[in-house]
Structure formats: C-alpha cells, structure tokens
Amino acid sequence: MEAISTSIAVGMAAALTGFLASYQNVFYYFHECCRNEWISFNKTGLQVDLERKLFGQHIASRVVVKALTGFMNNKNPKKPLVLSLHGWTGTGKNFVSQLMANNIFRRGMESGFVHQFVATAHFPHASQINTYKAQLQEWVRGNVSICGRSMFIFDEMDKMHPGLIDSIKPFLDYYDNLDGVSYRQATFVFLSNAGGESITRVVLDFWKAGRDREEIQLKDLERAMSLEVFNNKNSGFWHTSLIDKNLIDFFVPFLPLEYRHVRMCALAEMEAQKMNLDEDMANEVAKDMIYSPKEERVFSVKGCKTIASKLEYYR
Ligand SMILES: Nc1ncnc2c1ncn2[C@@H]1O[C@H](COP(=O)(O)OP(=O)(O)OP(=O)(O)O)[C@@H](O)[C@H]1O
Question: Which GO molecular-function terms appear in the entry (predicted)?
Fold first, then answer.
C-alpha cells in the first residue's frame, strides 16, 4: 500500500514538474526573456538587410557582419563587443544599429535588452555628472545581470562628458567579472560624427581621382579617422583611454552619401510609406538636398536625413 502511494506521489510530482516546465515554455513564448527563442543572431538576415536597405556603405556593411558573426558565434568571448560607428549626419549609423538589433533580438529595438542613450538628452547637465555616472553604471550593471546578451547603444558619443565615458570603461575591458557580473557577452555600440571630416576627405580624393567608391578600403580610412578622433578637443573620446587601451574592437566608417544614394533613400522611404514608387519625385527630393563641398557638390550635407519629412511635402 505504502509503495503504491509513494509511486503515486512520485508520478504526481513528475506530472507537476512537466506541467510547470511546459507552463514556463508557454510563458516565455509570449514574454520576452533572455533565452535563444528571443535572442539569436541571424547572420543571413543581417546580410540581406544590409544589402537591400543600406545604400553606399560597403565598408560598414562588411565590418558589422564580420564583427557580429565572430562575436555571436563565440561561446566564450574574452571581452564584450565594442563597435564605434563614425560618420557624417544622416549616413546610416542609427539605421545600422537598428538592423543589428533586429537581427539579434526578436523584438528588435523594442526589446527590453536593447538600451539606447543619447548624450544630450539623457546627460544634459555637466554639473550633474556624478549622479549620471552612478546611474549609468547601475543601469548597465543591472541590465547585464538580468541578461548577459544586452546591447547598449550610445548616440552622440562625441558630445558625452569624458567622465561619463570613463565610468563605463571597466565594462568594456577584459575582466572576467566585476562584482559577480560578467560583461563579456554584451554589445556596446558607440555612434558619433567624430572622424566624419577625415572620412569625407578620403572619399573626395577617390572621387576626384575618378576611382570607384567601392575601391575604398577600411585601411584607407582608419588612420585618418583615428587621428581626427584623437586630436579633436571637442570630442569626448579625446579625454579618455577607450582608444588608448584598445577597448574598441572595430571602427566602422560611414561614407558621405551622394545624389544617387539619396535618390535610393527617397524610393525606399516611399516603399516604407506604402506610396507608389515615383522616380521623378525621388529625383526632385534628391535634387533639393544641399551638397558639399562648395565647388564639387558631391556629398549630401544631411545624408538621407529629412528625406521622410521632405516626401510629405512633395506628396
Ligand atoms: N546609407 C543609408 N542607406 C539607407 N538609408 C539611410 C542611409 N543613411 C540614412 N538612411 C535613412 O535616413 C534615416 C536617418 O539616418 P540615421 O539616423 O541612421 O543617420 P545617422 O548617421 O545616425 O545620423 P546622426 O549622426 O545625425 O545621428 C534612417 O532612418 C534611414 O531611413
């Protein structure tokens, strides 16, 4: 009798465990959690997105795919992935961050594991730097302890207070863990306009020499770009040892966009807004943008920014 009741109890416990496990699976199917169902890198998806949606950025596309593939496939990275995206306004830095998030997190930028900071909006007052430092450190620590695969995007990095950049430095380093939290699976993406002038100079030289833009390689830009970032006294980077200490894994240059790219942006935006594709309107929009330098007028000063609002006007 006793044996029967024991086996019934064991059976019930097993059934309950099974029920709880499947309940948990159903729960996590609908509620985002730090598991593979919600976070997994889709390399092909990223490649396709970059090929189809990102215009004129052959180097950035290549570097981003390479960096993420290596990092996401490594079960035991030695440090978090740190990408620094540089270039003129409107050339696609935020856009690429979104494409990255979309191909790692099922909820993309809406994911609770993707965190975006904008220097001027989130940390506007230099006098409150100590409060910001403490808040930022706690925010990063808290979120990484919930999910190691968290992604942090820092926009306007060049406007960020040097002290604030310094305060996140330990998270980017090769530490096994800090106070019991390991940051090695996390991704940090820094966006800035620093380096934009140097990048433009190199692209202009290629253009003047009649060379194909696609011939430009990362090495053609890297040196000029890092010199500008280093020497720019207004840039937050200048004060810090992020670059000094090799904490940035990849510099990702964004090239200034030309008329043909702006045109493609206009067509893409029409598609996004479910409008009929109108080549003439795309030409008009592209023609109305301002191009620099003064004599050559090759590069759109605002890149593809403001295209969406311009379309409203032409409709
Ligand atoms: N290279 C590009 N290819 C396709 N679309 C682009 C590209 N660059 C910009 N766009 C479009 O323009 C919009 C604005 O660009 P985005 O915000 O990515 O620029 P940014 O480089 O981050 O600029 P900023 O330095 O001012 O923040 C994007 O949402 C996208 O729709």
Answer: ATP binding; ATP hydrolysis activity; kinesin binding
